[in-house]
From TrEMBL:
Listed EC numbers: 3.5.2.7
Residue ranges constituting the Amidohydrolase-related domain according to the UniProt record: 78-419
Protein name as annotated: Imidazolonepropionase
InterPro entries reported for this sequence: Amidohydro-rel (IPR006680), HutI (IPR005920), Metal-dep_hydrolase_composite (IPR011059), Metal_Hydrolase (IPR032466)
One GO MF term attached to the UniProt entry: iron ion binding
Residues that span the membrane, as ranges: none
The protein's role, per its UniProt record: Catalyzes the hydrolytic cleavage of the carbon-nitrogen bond in imidazolone-5-propanoate to yield N-formimidoyl-L-glutamate. It is the third step in the universal histidine degradation pathway.
Positions that bind 4-imidazolone-5-propanoate: R96, Y159, H192, E260, S336
Gene Ontology cellular component list: cytoplasm
Free-text comment on the cofactor: Binds 1 zinc or iron ion per subunit.
Length: 430
């Protein structure tokens, strides 16, 4: 029996009460804080949460004392749900550091893509890599996510762009999910770019995505979601709608890269088609914001991408005021956001989108869990939920957005196992 008592945190952030529906508006600032909070774990799950005194009583009653219970003293620390990253392009080969200089010299992100670079450069490198090579590189990245307090990531395919190479990426995502403590939730994104070989007949590629890729991915149970890069010169609104409609028919839940570089009506489509999230949204219209609020589509905002592409951020405050549930993500990928640090993204969300330190915590935990349909299991510290827990070396939550670029992760529990302690992996053989 695995039993832990995490004891006497200066702040324990429960984020309770939002497992059924994501937090919106003022709820985003309510973190359900327990001062001098304690939490008990039994096997993979949280079994009780409360004040120090309540938990001492509970532990005596339920466990008959502390025999066989491991105790972690969290005095002076913050205990909170493990961070959840709901939008990454985790599985790829190679890097694109040279594009930074091209962009600094005035080339735009889309120009680089249209010239066969960008996503297409990573596609070429990913196609040439073996499943073994991709697995090894992806496991390393997951280690880095974990050391930054992240316990679940969503991962998109989209650097294969052939049936076999898309399946290869998704198989790697499944394999690392099984091998690594961080949970990986998969999204099929065959419609990430038009591959070179279909440049002169993009419609033919859309037919391939719809007719062959979606049935195979869904048939093999390799993804839960389907995403499309709905953007000028990439996939049109009409093509996006066709792809996502077919995905739905196969049981894949729609997501969208929406209104990132040009206003395309992506947010409106997300609402209309019943997408679980619409992501990016730098150029979203007022109508799109209203439609998302009405339909309850989670806005996954990616201020690290805006920062790295030197673009103005999404209008987070307008979305929050309109009642759109907001989540945050790294958008980790080799082109537009090569960072694994969700805490840095939270800091950027405060400084560049004027979200508060409390709002960004709700956005990167319970609302991120909603963006990937997992809020019944993770995203808050409540009895019965998976024991995915982050302990910060800081006396209150505001430190997370304040020490920018500093990793405050002290300890991490994943499914009730202590996997990071003192900022280092502690579950590996020496
Ligand atoms: N915008 C499209 N896709 C990714 C970037 C992928 C890449 O540049 O490799 C994004 O979300 O930013
Ligand atoms: Zn993306």
């Amino acid at each position: 029996m695995n039993r832990w008592l995490i004891h006497g945190a200066s702040q324990l952030l429960t984020l309770k009460g939002a497992s059924d529906r994501p937090k919106r508006g003022k709820q985003m600032s309510e973190l359900g804080i327990i001062e001098q909070g304690s939490l008990a774990i039994e096997n993979e799950r949280i079994f009780a949460v409360g004040s120090r005194e309540e938990m001492e009583r509970e532990v005596r009653l339920r466990w008959g004392g502390l025999d066989g219970v491991r105790v972690l003293n969290a005095a002076g620390k913050v205990v909170m749900p493990g961070l959840i990253d709901p939008h990454t392009h985790l599985v790829f080969a190679g890097t694109r550091e040279y594009e930074l200089e091209m962009r600094l010299n005035g080339r735009t992100y889309l120009e680089i893509l249209q010239a066969g670079g960008g996503i297409l450069a990573t596609t070429a490198m990913t196609r040439s890599a073996t499943e073994e090579e991709l697995t090894e590189q992806t496991l390393k990245r997951l280690d880095r996510f974990l050391l930054h307090g992240v316990t679940t990531v969503e991962a998109k395919s989209g650097y294969g762009l052939t049936l076999q190479d898309e399946l290869k990426q998704l198989r790697v995502a499944r394999r690392v999910h099984e091998e690594h403590p961080v949970d990986v939730v998969s999204t099929f994104m065959g419609a990430h770019a038009i591959p070179e070989e279909y440049k002169h007949d993009p419609e033919e590629y859309v037919r391939l995505v719809i007719g062959e890729m979606i049935p195979r991915v869904a048939g093999e149970g390799l993804a839960e979601f389907c995403d499309v890069f709905c953007e000028k010169g990439v996939f049109s609104l009409e093509q996006t709608e066709r792809i996502l409609t077919e995905a739905k028919r196969w049981g894949l839940v729609p997501k969208l890269h929406a209104d990132e570089l040009e206003p395309m009506g992506g947010a409106e489509l997300a609402a209309r088609i019943g997408a679980i999230s619409a992501d990016h949204l730098l150029k979203v219209s007022d109508r799109g914001i209203r439609a998302m609020a009405e339909a309850g589509v989670v806005a996954v905002l990616l201020p690290g991408t805006a920062f790295f592409l030197m673009a103005p951020c999404a209008r987070a405050r307008d979305m929050l005021e309109a009642g759109v549930p907001v989540a945050l993500s790294t958008d980790f990928n080799p082109g537009s956001s090569p960072t694994v640090s969700l805490p840095v993204i939270m800091n950027l969300a405060c400084l560049n989108m004027k979200m508060t330190p409390a709002e960004v915590i709700a956005a990167a935990t319970i609302n991120s869990a909603h963006a990937i349909g997992k809020a019944g299991e993770i995203g808050s510290l409540e009895p019965g939920k998976q024991a995915d827990i982050l302990i910060l070396d800081a006396p209150n939550y505001a430190h997370l957005s304040y020490h920018y670029g500093v990793n405050l992760t002290d300890s991490v529990f994943k499914k009730g196992e202590l996997v990071v302690q003192g900022g280092r992996r502690c579950d590996l053989p020496i």
